[in-house]
Amino acid sequence: MKPSSLVHSAGALTAGLVCGAGLLLSGMTVPSKVLHFLDPLGAWDPSLAFVMAGAIAVYAFAYRLISRRSAPIAAPTFSTPPPTRIDPKLIVGSLVFGVGWGLSGYCPGPSLISLSSAALPVTLFVLAMAIGTTAGMLLEQL
User: Fold this and answer.
1) Residue 36: enclosing H or E segment and its boundaries?
2) What is the C-alpha to C-alpha distance for residues 37 and 57, in angstroms, rounded to an integer?
3) For labeling, which of 56, 88, 101, 132 is most exposed (least CB within 10 Å)?
4) Is the pLDDT of residue 40 over 90?
5) Where does the pLDDT of residue 28 fall: very low under 50, low under 70, confident under 90, or very high at 90 and above?
6) CA dist., res. 68 & res. 131, Å (int)
7) What is the pLDDT of residues 8-21, one digit of tens each?
8) Would you say 34 and 48 are in contact if contact means Cβ atoms under 8 Å apart?
């Protein structure tokens, strides 16, 4: 493994651990917290908005620092994705994602962290998510 790959992998691992720890500490791996955020006319819990605002603030600060560099630490150039257009596939995918999130209270990242609990609901959710992802990738190839 090249040194730059090792640095990149270590950075990705560290970022993932920090993100996972933040999700656990904030309670965002508990589906009822997410479902209460999505219920503004009932037992609304605004804490998810604070978690998102905190993440956006940290990202905005880090982005300003990083964007001043001529290149990233572990690569010769920055790799930014091309802008995507809003098309029916994106809209339908967003709606399906939102319905799944709203029905279950699980989002992909927190569900993977919650998987460590071995609880049946989260296990079934992650299994269904994996099946759906695989089916989507197979459909893309048609």
Assistant:
1) helix 31-37
2) 20
3) 88
4) no
5) confident
6) 41
7) 788 888 988 998 88
8) yes
CA trace torsion 110, 112, 117, 118 (10° rounding): 140
Distance CA 138, CA 121 (A): 26
CA 17: distance to chain centroid? 13
pLDDT band at residue 126 using 50, 70 and 90 as cut-offs? very high
Name residue 75's amino acid: A
84: alpha, beta or left? (left if phi > 0; alpha if psi -120 to 50): beta
Q: Is 1 helix (H, G, I), strand (E, B) or coil?
A: coil
Would you state the torsion angle of the CA atoms of residues 28, 98, 89, 111, taken in this order, to the nearest 10 degrees?
A: 40
Residues in the chain: 142
pTM above 0.90, yes or no: no
Q: What is the full DSSP assignment across 52-119?
A: HHHHHHHHHHHHHHHTTSSS-TTSSS---PPP----HHHHHHHHHHHHHHHHH---HHHHHHHGGG--
Block residue for tokens 């904030």: 26
